[in-house]
Amino acid sequence: MDSEKIADQLLEIYGLLFEKFGDQHWWPAKTQFEVIVGAVLTQFISWSNVVKAIDNLKKSNLLDAGKLYECDIEIIKELIKPAGFFNRKAVILKSVVAFVVEEFEGNLDKMFKTPLGVLREMLLKVRGIGPETADSILLYAGYKKIFVVDAYTVRIFSRLGFIKNDEKYHDVQAFFMKHLPEEVDLYNQFHALIVKLGSDCCSGKKPKCASCVLKSRCNETGSHNEC
Question: Phi, psi at residue 136, to the nearest 5°?
Answer without folding.
Answer: -65, -40
